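TL;DR need structure tokens for one chain.
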Amino acid sequence: MNNAGQGRMRLNRFLASSGLGSRRACEELIREGVITVNGVVTRALHETVMPAKDTVRVRGKTVRPVGQHVYLMMYKPKGYLTTMKDPQERKNVVSLLPKAGVRLFPVGRLDRDSEGLLLFTSDGEIAHRMAHPRYTVSRYYRVDLATPFPRELLPRLESGVMARGERLRAHKAWLRGEKRHGHQVQLVLRTGRKREIRRLLAALGFEVIRILRYGFGPLRLGSLELGNTRRLTAQEIKELHGLMGGA
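>> reply
TL;DR here they are.
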């Protein structure tokens, strides 16, 4: 069987293809009684599943074969809209995507003037878990400013400021380097509000020159070049599924 998403497959093979270890190690998990198929505990080593239909959980955590969905990381350049279709035919990220053979959609957004890590996937559950504010998935940014930012103002970024009746805040904030003032602020956010970083810093009187998102959840931009995409590694996909919990 070449496609893990079609037909029936042995449960131990399904678990192994989900990144849980060798087939023998997965057989031990089955014997331990920590595997459920459609809500029913199974200890049968001969159990088979339909990957496209059955829900398999290990200790309450949903698992899927790595090959069942497509996951791409993009280094989005400045000047591109995060949309798959634009009636005004402006530059958008879909023009940078390779053909994947499945329908992909972006997870979260970066505004047109920002750059950095975008995730594209056919996996709706991962997309929901990564982007929804309820799950507080961290987003990591480097922000270049027109003027130096005093270190003593960092607590204001973390405690939050009011902007047009809305409280905006960073989960964490620090300056790059050890100087008391710096032109680059590094931020961790756990929400994805529209132009949140620009509004947050503008409320404190600072003009943003550049925003780079270098991390999203367990993913890091690394050495990916501007405008390029790559498929996620099996380890990265496993870490994404680690965010799923028991959902």
